[in-house]
Records
---
Amino acid sequence: MSNQDRKIRVAVVGSGMGGLCVAIGLLKHAHLDVQVYEAAHKFSEIGAGVAFGPNAQRALRLLGKETEEAYLRQVTHNQWHEERNVWFEYIYGMGPREGELIAVPKNETGQSTVHRAKFLDEFVRLVPKEVAHFGKRLERLDDEAGAPLTLHFKDGTTAEADCIIGADGVHSAVRKHLLGENHPALDPVFTGSLVPIKDAEAALDERFAKNSTILVGDGACIMTYPIDFGETMNVVAINSSYKKWEGPWVQKVAYQQIANEFSEWGPRAQKLLKLLDNPETAAWAMFDNSKVPTFYKGRVAMLGDAAHASTPFQGQGAGQAIEDAYVLSSLFAAIDTLDQVPLAFQAYDKVRRPRSQRVCETSREAGELCALRLKGVNDDPKLFEQNITWRMDWMWHRDIAGERAEALGIFTALLEDGKV
Ligand SMILES: Cc1cc2nc3c(=O)[nH]c(=O)nc-3n(C[C@H](O)[C@H](O)[C@H](O)COP(=O)(O)OP(=O)(O)OC[C@H]3O[C@@H](n4cnc5c(N)ncnc54)[C@H](O)[C@@H]3O)c2cc1C
């Protein structure tokens, strides 16, 4: 509980997965006044599947019973019982070994996915309406020593806060405040759509339609997994040739473009990609931002994609945002006074930056692996299997509660050092 005579005002900017999770964590503490500022006019998310590894699920459980229950209401697993612990089956999608199984990494939860929009709806219910402010696109911050922070929004309004958590995604305005305009990003093609499972079953075999698979091939891969309790298959085709991206970050894409890019792939890939021949198929730009020198400055910090956007090859972007939210909200529970906020941010940065940046790096490497271009592995199935196994194990078996304890230990040590 705070020694202050008033609550500490925390502004959360952005209400995606990271912003909602951190807000839900912070709202549990009576000494904090939490306000959420979201650019959109309502809570919204593009509709697609999001896969959660066991680490993300543990973080949701640690964050609270209500977040775990929300997740459990929405989760879809592989549809076949014997595939329940399978993350993905990695299979050659082209060339002389087309159809050959390379690796089957497994974990205690297997492939666990949610429909992004439906999952976010569950979390929205956990944030009181009076603290959620919509149509508030942050443009800039005033950050003068000795004065409250002022948030300036695009609609001309302002708000005050004692500290700010930027959860405003890959094009983060908070990151620009912390680090300046320029940050590294990669932008290859990332195309996907949702396909009714019955259509997938008609075109492919049942096992393939109902369980998670990654077809790998020269320079690209195609992921599929069930969502919507097995009613829908999420299909994502990724060309790793890192072409220059032009136009909006999400845009409709013609099937012919996909067909051209995958023209040399085998019959299974062709049947699968034909399912993307619909007007809803969209292409996303991917980002990879693993190099920022800090996640905070003074009373302003960032989390989730704002801090460490990653490629999707290990299904970890949302998971990392949730891990951030758990550690950061735990630190805020321990804050007594306003001047301790920068120390909490420092402890958060020290623990979360190495982990999340390493996740970005291994995700990038996993993209190279799935494109059969990872140095030292290339097209060797045995080495592929070894590589994907240790890579995923490292990611999944992180002790997130241990990270929280470590962050709290660092925070306590900073307090004892007399920094405040
Ligand atoms: C197609 C696709 C598939 C993916 N699949 C997976 C997966 O399987 N598993 C996984 O773990 N991750 C996946 N990811 C990544 C994952 O979606 C992100 O890592 C995660 O959503 C990041 O959450 P976030 O809250 O940090 O950012 P976001 O979800 O981007 O949320 C940012 C929020 O901030 C708001 N905002 C932006 N700018 C401002 C501003 N200036 N002022 C106020 N508000 C602002 C936005 O409107 C938005 O609501 C995928 C991503 C994509 C695009």
---
Amino acid sequence: MRISSSFLVFWVLATGSALVLSGCRPLPPSKPASEWTPQEARGAAVFQAKCARCHYPTTTHPLHGPGLQALTKVKAMPSGAPPTDERLTDVILHGRSMMPPTELTNTELADLLAYLHTL
Ligand code: HEC
């Protein structure tokens, strides 16, 4: 009993530090498509049309821009700015360095922001 529990502690510590060392912190999972509200589903369609060629939504692996998994659940976006709706709106409508501006109607923007919160 004693041996097995200290082995368990060792295993947990070893696995935990391996994750930290590899820089791979587990992020909260994205909301599954089956649970999207109608607005989130419309936002997903906007994302597919306007963003998907440069961003993966459900991993942090980069495509042309950073992967957006858990975008609104982390403290800071890749630029260091907090992922507030104001900041996201600014990046989306005006672009940022290598990211071009995207033209959206107010409804498309609101739907897209709702979808980004599911990631
Ligand atoms: C042509 C490719 C391209 C398209 C299309 C594009 N992006 Fe980006 N995006 C980028 C690049 C490149 C960056 C990194 C910019 C930088 O250097 O800070 C980026 C950065 C971002 C960031 C991080 C901003 C930060 O402050 O770190 C967010 C969020 C983002 N994009 C969301 C979107 C959304 C939502 C859409 C769709 C409306 C979109 N992008 C469309 C290329 C693109």
